[in-house]
Amino acid sequence: MTHLIIGNGIAGLNAARAIREMDADAAVVMVSDETFPPYSRPMISYVLEGSEPHAKLPLFPGNVYEDLKITPVLGHRVAHLDVKKKAVRLENGTHIDFQTLLIATGADARQVNVPGSDLGNIFTMRTQKDVLDQLEAVSQGVENALVLGGGLVGFKAAHALLKRGINVTMLITSPYPLAMQVDETAGKMILEELQAHGLAVKVGVSVTAFDGDGTVGNARLDSGEILDCDLVIVGKGVDPSLGFIPENDIEIGYGIQVDPYLCSSVPDIYAAGDAAETFDIARQTRWINAIWPEAAVQGRIAGFNMAGRKVVCPGSLGRNVMRIYSLDVLTLGLANPEKTADLEIIQAGGETAGAYRRLAFRGNIMVGAVLINQIEQGGVFRAMIENRVPVRIPKKYLMSLNFNYSRLL
Length: 409
Known about the structure:
By secondary structure, the chain is α/β, with parallel strands linked by helices. The chain has 8 helices and 26 strands.
């Protein structure tokens, strides 16, 4: 029995560990286009800011491949999946057969496609190599940095560069930061907090071109403005890395559509992490929740199923908690849904109150939450969303810090 895992991130690694718990002798082959050992992707921003060394990135000490008896095939990207023959072909022409396959390829950072985007010192921020390249550029001297995108990656990149004493400007197409996670009130609170701590933020603008002699020197904006910059980090989101899968061979929406066992439409082919569309508890439909904790859990479940132990994935839930200077920000589920007739939104607080709370309900079931400061009840709200606990008391009571979960029971 050969179990093939594409991807050596947390989903792929946890799958291998689960397989080993079930079968000490089965062949496990892991393919990755990276050569670095499995590492904590969320920590790369700490390496950029200098608070953690690059050597701290690996998830486990020693040789994890040797410890788990994994055959690693590193530094090679999968070029083609042959579903019928149960084999993959790598870009170097190597073929690998399998009995079960896990696609845990994660996602690729979106590039910015404008004139001059091939100049030096323009980076994405997805891998440990990205950060090493950024640190090399910083070591040569950087005065003005530009961060494209107002999501989590953009914020982390901007914060890291600011800590290094670099002038940073964040360009956001939307009207406020974290627009995919929070509503306008929360977004403006975050925007003001960023500006108060020295980050220049321009909203409603985009880059139309970069200029420079070998390396980037400035950026031209659709507003007509020209900004000096000798380093650019693009944080414009990611897309599932699925280009090696022939069209129509596997059911794919935005990601690979999987059943409760994380199996794709093809028997013995599984998917987990940022490549998989699992059942979203808040949305009650398939969705990709591209966050580290979900990838970790899904990888383990997929591994058990590959090894013959039937384990059901209970569904996924998007959530994030972050510290933005003096603001604690927590989002859960449908944190910033479009207004529809079946959704009820209640909110309280705001900038002058020093805290903000916005909850979304479908009927008497909470489906989303945004909390800024006073986030101590976030765990209760998460449990309510994940377990679909009916709210049988007036919803306004959930806005109080004195709310007691037992009142629902």
